[in-house]
Amino acid sequence: MLARKRILAALALAVLGSTAQAADEVVVYSSRIDELIKPVFDAYTAKTGVKVKFITDKEAPLMQRIKAEGENATADLLLTVDAGNLWQAEQMGILQPFTSAVIDANIPAQYRSSTHSWTGLSLRARTIAYSTDRVKPEELTTYEALADKQWEGRLCLRTAKKVYNQSLTATLIETHGAQASEKILKGWVNNLSTDVFSDDIAVLEAINAGQCDVGIVNTYYYGRLHKQNPDLAVRLFWPNQSDRGVHVNLSGIGLTKYAPHPDAAKALVEWMTGPEAQTIFSGTNQEFPANPKVPPSEEVASWGEFKADTIAVEIAGRRQAEAIRMMDRVGWN
Ligand code: FE
Predict the structure, then answer these.
(1) Domains of the chain (ranges, CATH numbers)
(2) 220 CA to centre of ligand 1 in angstroms
């Protein structure tokens, strides 16, 4: 009898335990790798006791998995890069809107979804990189000017298959319209010194090695390579400072449609937009905090200040299909 009572008590405790644990955890599906997200989640757990479980994979399989799980969702949050990807997730119907005065106060509207399905967490500029041996910064002005004759056989680009370039093109179309944008893209493709590269680091290395003189890359890749090789003969240039400004994109997070722990998930996202998390999260990848009240790391600050395009980044998603078709037409592989 006593033994039975003990077993029942143990069972009751186990049930209570699992209920308590279920409420005190958040599950994140992340296309960002462990080392970029774990420090911020660890800090949150240390502070609140809430466990953050995460699975990392490429964004497409993660999004498919959330879609397939449907109402039996295990993920509360989808963490990924590029407004183009977050917009895709929204279109797939795997996110739900969530409003928060804290997030609204911390993150500028241009870096959030207009339907409140996701918010930016960190920013990266997709900007011009140039050879310090063969280019004077005074020769550079705008992204558009890289289509000029002056850069013939001197430009390196990453593949058009990468969402970063699709988003850049989408904002170009939003700014200039289709006809003018296509002309610019044609100019870029005409000016290529060699085949497109599979990643931004390869673009930077090609500039450093003398294969080309200018390219377009995300700032954190420059940060990464520069850290490895302080003698890198490549610098970043901030284009379009007298007009629309530099193209800025983001990493961001969205609440899944059937999140099992929506309140705990929302609390985590709110905290992630605040000063402590912003410093850790942007610092791990040499990005800019999306919260403008939080200063970037010393290394990132050393690249200098710039005017960013004020365009709402979700345009990257809205015009993505159009951008892909245009890139294809001009022969940007
Ligand atoms: Fe990247």
Answers:
(1) 25-123+248-296 (3.40.190.10), 124-247+309-329 (3.40.190.10)
(2) 8
Place of tokens 């928060």: 100
Per-residue pLDDT, 23: 60
Rounded distance between C-alpha atoms, residue 6 and residue 147, angstroms? 78
Exposed/middle/buried for 245, CB within 10 Å: 0-12, 13-18, 19+?
Answer: middle
Question: How many angstroms is it from 9 CA to the middle of ligand 1?
Answer: 51
- What DSSP letter does each residue of 256-303 carry, written as one string? BTT-SSHHHHHHHHHHHTSHHHHHHHHHHTT-EESSTTSPPPHHHHTT
Q: pLDDT tens digits, residue range 112-138?
A: 999 999 999 999 999 999 999 999 999
pLDDT at 1: 42
| Alpha helix ranges (H) inside the chain | 2-23, 34-48, 59-69, 83-91, 101-106, 163-176, 178-191, 200-209, 219-228, 262-272, 275-284, 298-301, 315-318, 320-329
The two structure tokens encoding residue 165: 């370039």
Distance 197 CA to ligand 1 centre (A): 14
**Residue ranges for the chain with pLDDT beneath 50:** 1-22
Query: How many angstroms does the Cα of residue 310 sit away from the middle of ligand 1?
Result: 21
CB of 6 within 8 A of CB of 14? no
pTM of the full structure: 0.91
Contact yes or no for 37/54 (Cβ under 8 A): yes
Q: What spacing in Å lies between the alpha carbon of 306 and ligand 1's midpoint?
A: 21
